[in-house]
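Provenance

Sequences were taken from public entries as deposited. Structures were produced by running a predictor on each sequence independently, with no templates supplied. The record for Methionine synthase from Pseudomonas saxonica is shown for reference.
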Amino acid sequence: MKKLLPTSTAGSLPKPSWLAQPETLWSPWKLQEETLAEGKQDALLLSLQAQQQAGIDIVSDGEQTRQHFVTTFIEHLNGVDFEKRETVRIRDRYDASVPTVVGAVSRQKSVFVEDAKFLRQHTGQPIKWALPGPMTMIDTLHDAHYKSREKLAWEFAKILNEEAHELEAAGVDIIQFDEPAFNVFFDEVNEWGVATLERAIEGLKCETAVHICYGYGIKANTDWKKTLGSEWRQYEEAFPKLQKSSIDIISLECHNSHVPMELMELIRGKKVMVGAIDVASHSIETPEQVANTLRQALKFVDADKLYPCTNCGMAPLPRQIARGKLQALTAGADIVRRELQTSAPY
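Predicted structure for Methionine synthase:
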C-alpha cells in the first residue's frame, strides 16, 4: 500500500564545511579537480544518509554537486559566456553579476545524469531531482543574443527536456522544475511561462513537479517578504493555469508564510508538496507545528495527494539546524499519518 504523506525536501541541503563555505550561497569549492569530484560524491552520500536518518521518504541529491541551482546547469551549456558579466535585477528584487548569453544556447552532453546514476546506485528509495525552470533561468542571465525573454525560455525548455529524459532513464522518479520567477512575473507566466514548462516535461513518463517559492532565507528575500502585506496571494496568479497543465505535482511555500491556505483550492486535483518547514529561520519546528500546518492543508488537499516538504532549499542553514528540521518534518508527518489512519478526521 502506498504510504500516506510521503516526505521530501524542496531542494538543497547544507554542504560539508570541507567542500564549501558553510551558510553561504554560491560558495567557491574548497577542493579541486579529482579531489573535488570525489568530495562531491562523498557529500552526496552524506546528504543521502542525513535524509535517511531523518526518515525522509523521497530523497534527493541535496544539490551537493552544484554551486547554485540555476548557474551550475547553465555553465555546462554552449552560448553563455561566464567571463562576460553584467549586473541585472534578479526576481525584480536584488542585483547580481550574471553571465551573458552571446550565441545560440545548446547542450552538448548531460549535466547531472552521472550524479543521478550515482545516487540511484546507493538507494532504492524514490528519487526527486531538481532542475531550474525556463523562466527562472532567463531571469538569472543577461541576454545579448536572443533579446527576447520568451524566445530564450523556449530554447531552455528544449534543453531541459533533453536533460529530463536522461535523468528519467537514469532512474529518477520525480523531476522537479524550480520556478520562483512564477511568483514575480505574472503576465509572462500566463502568456508563455507555463507553456515553456509544459515543453520542458514533454514526453516524460516519470512524475513531474514545479516548485514555486518565495526564495532562500537570505536578507534580500526576507526584506522583500516584509513588503508583501498580511496576505501573500501571488500563487493566485499562476495556480489556475497550472491546475490545467500536465504538471503532476505543485510545490509551494506554506509554514510561517502569509499564504492563505484556501489558495490550494485553485489546484484541486493536483498532488501538492506543502512546505511545512521554514527555511528562513534557525528555529527548529516542533513536530506539532508541522502537524498543524499539514492539518490545515488537508482541508484543501486530499490526503493521498499531500506531500510534506520544506518551504525552499536549506543550503544557507547550519547543517545541524537543517537535520533538526528534517527530523521535525518527518515526526510531524507521522503524527498526522496516525490520525488519518485511526479516525480520518479531515
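Strands lie at 77-90, 94-107, 128-132, 142-143, 174-178, 207-212, 249-253, 271-275, 306-309.
The chain has a mean pLDDT of 95.
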